[in-house]
Design brief:
- By secondary structure, this protein is mainly α.
- Helix content is 68%, strand content 0%.
- The longest helix has 29 residues.
- The protein is elongated, with a radius of gyration of 19 Å.
Length: 204
């Protein structure tokens, strides 16, 4: 294992222990069993270590989704449904998730959301293009439409940024479903899966 990964694992252990918030760079280095200078070779600050840990975690989530989806031979609508299911059901480290929702980590939280968008949008764009080829969708700008589909799910419905009731979540997702059906000229009811069985708990 590389020293970089040792450092990230050390911070993750401190998160599990509940001491990451007050931990210093020296504490992280000590947990990784390396010199403080060795940590600074890879990272300029504790915040950079957390940033890299977030990126590693979400890379795992996205790549897991990509691998599972690649193994599926299904129509475009089913693939969008499966992708969202894979994304929501792939475990995100709870200690890391809690750390991201702490006020002092707001900037890293925002960066993590942007990272997810950048990684997921090309996958969704490819599925939309498949739908165009299947004549299920009419879409001249698949990349931008993918971003518009994902934006409410990643940002607007992030419980760390907004606190919505179950009813408010349902209304927003129903509106998104209608907008997508209209813009993609998809059959009525095509996107009901966006809000069926989706609760505020499933967003966490």
């Amino acid at each position: 294992m590389s020293k970089r990964d040792l450092i990230l694992d050390a911070l993750q252990e401190l998160l599990y222990e509940g001491t990451a918030g007050t931990a210093s760079v020296q504490d992280i280095a000590s947990k990784a069993k390396i010199a403080k200078g060795g940590l600074y070779y890879y990272f300029k600050s504790k915040e950079e270590v957390l940033d890299a840990l977030v990126e590693r975690q979400y890379n795992y989530v996205i790549e897991t989704c990509r691998t599972k989806l690649a193994a599926v031979d299904a129509p475009a609508l089913e693939k969008i449904k499966l992708l969202l299911f894979f994304y929501r059901s792939t475990a995100v480290d709870r200690a890391l998730d809690s750390a991201l929702h702490e006020p002092q980590n707001a900037a890293i939280h925002q960066k993590s959301n942007a990272f997810i968008m950048q990684k997921l949008a090309p996958i969704v764009s490819g599925i939309l293009q498949q739908g165009v080829e299947e004549k299920t969708f009419v879409c001249a700008h698949t990349e931008q439409t993918a971003e518009l589909l994902l934006s409410p799910i990643i940002f607007l419905l992030d419980p760390g940024l907004f606190t919505w009731t179950e009813q408010e979540v349902q209304l927003k997702l129903k509106a998104l479903a209608k907008m997508l059906e209209s813009s993609l000229q998809a059959p009525p009811g095509s996107f009901t899966f966006l809000y069926e069985n989706w609760t505020t708990q499933s967003l966490k």
